[in-house]
Amino acid sequence: MGDAAAFAADRADPMVPRVARVRRRRRDGPLVWTLELEADGADPGGFAPGQFNMLTVFGVGEVPISLSGDPAAPDRLVHTVRAVGPVSAALARVEPGGAVGLRGPFGAGWPMAEAAGRDVVLVAGGLGLAPLRPALYRLLAERERYGNVVLLYGTRSPDEILFRREIETWRRRLDIDIEVTVDHAAGDWHGHVGVVTTLIPRAAFDPLHALALVCGPEVMMRFAISALRDAGLAEEAVYLSMERNMKCAVGLCGHCQFGPVLVCRDGPVFRFDRLRGLLRTKEI
Amino acid sequence: MEGLERIIREHPFFAGLEERFTALVCGCAKNVRFEAAQYLFHEGGPADEFYLLRHGRVALELRAPGRGAVTFQTLRESEIVGVSWLIPPYRWTYDAKALELVRAIAIDAACLRRKCEADHDLGYDMMKRVMPVLVQRLQAARLQILDVYGSHG
Ligand SMILES: Cc1cc2nc3c(=O)[nH]c(=O)nc-3n(C[C@H](O)[C@H](O)[C@H](O)COP(=O)(O)OP(=O)(O)OC[C@H]3O[C@@H](n4cnc5c(N)ncnc54)[C@H](O)[C@@H]3O)c2cc1C
Q1: Whether the domain at A3-106 and the domain at A112-280 fall into the same CATH topology
Q2: Which chain B residues touch A185 with a CB distance below 8 Å?
C-alpha cells in the first residue's frame, strides 16, 4: 500500500494503526512464521507478557496476534503467526522490509506479580507456547524471584515443536523443568508421546503455593485445568489465555464478548474462576 | 520373594494393596529386562503378561500402511504396560517397544486371572486398578482424535 503514511503513528488513538516494518521472518513450523517487527519512528513503549497487538495487512484485514518475544527487548516486536485464513496467511507471507499496520499492545497479561515467590507451572499446547514465551523470558530473567519453574509443552508431532532450538537451550539449564510431549510420532522421535495432561501429575510443584499459566486450544485447556485441579491446584491459582474473534480490541465493539466478559479488554488472560461455567458452554 | 513383594507393594499401580493380595500377585510375578529396541509384545499376540515398569521407557506403536510404526503413547517408570490382559479376548491391540534398557516386573496374566476368578475380592480390586488406566487412555485417545493442535484448535 503506497500511502502507508496514512497509518502514521498516533499512539494517542488506539484505533489508528502505526506502520511497522518486518525486520526478520523465520519459519517456525508447518504454516507457522515468526515475524520480528520494528515500528516506524515511534518509541517502542513496552509490553506485558500475555498482551497482543492488532496487526493489519494492508488491503486484506486486521487480526489479533500475541507478542511472543522478550519483554526486556520491546523494540523487537516479535509475533508468531499460524496461517489459518486470509489475514493470518497474508501476514505470514510479508517479507522482510514489508510494511504492516500495528495497534497495541492490548489486554491483560499473565499475573507476573502474583507469581513472585511461588512455583510457576506453564502448560502450553501447540501455538499456545507463543503467548507464554514472554512470561518464560521474564521468569528466567528474574529467576531468583520464583520457586520451581516448570514448562509442560504438548504439540501434535515432533516437526511442529515451536521454538525447538530455544527449548533445547532452556533444557540445559538446571533451574527449570521442561517436559515436551507430542500426540504421535514416527520411530525416530525419542521423547515423550501422549497428551500434555499426562505430564501434570509428575510435575514438580507445590499445589498449595503454585500458579499455573495455561495457553492452547480450548479443549486442551479444559483437560489441562481439570488435571491441574486433580493435582491440588485451586481455581484461583489457574490462569488461561482466551481467544475470541475481535475487532476494536479496546472494549467498544463487543465482538469478542464471552459471557459477561470482553476478551480484548478484560483478558485475554483470565483467572479461571472468573470463567467458571463458560468454558464448557458450547456456543457463546 | 521378599524383594519382589516390596517392589510390587511400592509400585504406584498396586498402591495400598492388601497384604493377602500382595502375596497372591507376587506368586504370578517375576523380574524381567528388555534391551533398547526389543519388543515386549506385538499386536495380535496373546496378552499373557503385563508389566509394571521400574526403569526405562516403552513406546506403544501401531503400524499404519505406508507410514510405518506410529507411536501414540510412551510410558515410563511407575506406569503399567498392557491392559488387555484383564479383558477378553486377551489379545494385544498394539506393539510395545523398549526405547532404552527397561526393567520391569512381569505379571503372568493367566495366573492372576485364575486367582481373580477364585477370589472375586481380588478380581474387584484389580478391576478398580485397571479401570482408571483405561479411562485415562480413552480420554487421551479422544484428545488425539480431536487433533486439537490442528488449525481448527
Ligand atoms: C487475543 C488473541 C491472541 C491471538 N494470538 C495469536 C497468535 O499469537 N498467533 C496466531 O497465529 N494467532 C493468534 N490469534 C488467532 C488469530 O487472531 C486468528 O487466527 C486470526 O484472526 C484468523 O484470521 P484469518 O482471517 O487469518 O482467518 P479466518 O478467516 O478468520 O479463519 C480461518 C479459519 O481459521 C479458524 N480460526 C480462526 N481463528 C482461529 C484460532 N484462534 N485458532 C485456530 N483456528 C482459528 C477459523 O475457524 C477458520 O476456519 C489470537 C487471537 C486472539 C483473540
Answers
A1: no
A2: 70-71
